[in-house]
Amino acid sequence: MNSNPLVRRIGSTGFHRCRNYAPSRVFDGTGQYEGRLPPPVAFSPFPGGKGNEGLYYHVSAGGMPRITQIAYAWKRYRTTVTHRIATLPIVILMPHSACNCRCVMCDIWKGNHHLQQLTEADVSGLLHTLVQLGTRQVVMSGGEALLNRNFFRFCEILRGAGMKISLLSTGLALKRNADRLVQLVDEIIVSLDGDGPVHDAIRNIPGAYRQLVEGIQQIRSLAPQLHITGRSVIHRLNFRHWPAIIRSAQEAGLDQISFLPADVSSHAFNRAQLWDAARQHEILIDREALPALKAIIEQIKVEFRQEFQSHFIAEPPEKIDKLYAYYAAFYGLNPFPWKKCNAPWVSAVIEADGTVRPCFFHEALGNIRQESLEEALNKQSSIQFRKQLDMATNPTCERCVCYLNLPLLAPR
Ligand code: SF4
Ligand code: SF4
């Protein structure tokens, strides 16, 4: 046993063994070590391996302490007080700017000819900061992330450092990539807009629904336990088909489905110009149709009571009501729904050209091709942004459709 009193004290509450990195090496929460090791001067930071999730991280040389669960929570708390990012549990990467769908509510595919994509050097360059900041989950968003030829290499790099990979996908390329997806991705979230005809019409891709279902089936045949969920944007063109969307999610074999309203007012989703009123109303639910929306929500609550209870529908019924409130707010019938979000303090979005944002919707903080991620997140202007952000009054936050609230004590 190490005779260092600090090691003994912490050791009494439990040492942690890293099975992933070096089975015979035992560390304590101070960066001290015991066992058959030389001093940890040569270690790069690597999180604990699979099966050890949520307990600890190794950190690097020079005696820098390994982060325990408590220390991690403390760092998260400190981030909220100082607005300097000390931990970054979630990172959203956009490996590829182009998309293989042409959805009516999105402009991303209209920029397909201005292709941008992350490189292996970009992702490798992020690794040090991600590990240092204790990142546990990397969400691959897009465009369609699978269009990046290096997608699986990115997964190998990030998973090799203990991070979990969630893939947001159109589903069109799942089938041909199924073999590698089941090996290198921890969770898949597909977009679902309706039953077959409605889904294909909104995606502007004939056969999109069939390809999506075939992809899910292929993955299920290889890895029945892999978590595959759906996400559905509800808007003018599909709200009347809402019950059919839930049934389609069941038929397609999804584990869960979640719903959100359409963003019509931000610069996100490749909108160089904000949408004018006419374009917004192609997607917004008409004022005259709001009673029909309300009736459908009430119908869903009754017809799919069991699906709410089992969490097949991810949101509780009260949150589904907020979807009505969001669309009603455009006509001044009520305020935009209140939301609790800590995305800029717990996550970052890194776009295909290296742009770093505090969330999908706010202005860029920097670019990983000009500075490190840590510098982009913690330079004075970025800290100032977080310090001054008042979500209750900020117009971008007010209309936000896709927010994130990670509790302070969420398991890592
Ligand atoms: S909404 Fe998603 S799937 Fe549709 S075009 Fe945009 S990025 Fe692609
Ligand atoms: S509410 Fe939306 S826009 Fe505001 S910080 Fe959160 S994710 Fe960003």
The total count of strands amounts to 12
Terminal Cα span: 29 Å
The string of secondary-structure elements, in order, is HEEEHEHEHEHEHHEHEHHHHHEEEHHH
Strand content: 5-15%
Q: Tell me about the largest β-sheet.
A: 9 strands, mixed
Low-pLDDT segments, ≥5 res: 1-65
Averaging pLDDT over every residue, what do you get?
83
State the secondary-structure class. Answer: alpha/beta
Q: Widest sheet: strand order? A: 9-8-7-6-5-4-10-11-12
> Over the alpha carbons, how many angstroms does the gyration radius reach?
23 Å
**What is the overall number of helices?**
16
Percentage of residues assigned to helices:
25-40%
Structural notes for this entry:
The chain has helices spanning 5-11, 69-82, 120-132, 151-160, 178-184, 196-203, 208-222, 242-251, 277-283, 290-303, 305-309, 317-329, 343-346, 373-378, 380-388, 395-398, and strands spanning 16-17, 25-27, 33-35, 90-93, 137-140, 164-169, 187-191, 227-234, 256-261, 347-350, 355-357, 366-367. The protein has 412 residues and is α/β, with parallel strands linked by helices. The strands form two sheets. It has a nine-stranded mixed sheet with strand order 9-8-7-6-5-4-10-11-12. Mean pLDDT is 83; it is low at 1-65. The chain binds iron/sulfur cluster (2 copies). The site of one iron/sulfur cluster has 12 residues, from helix 13 and helix 16.
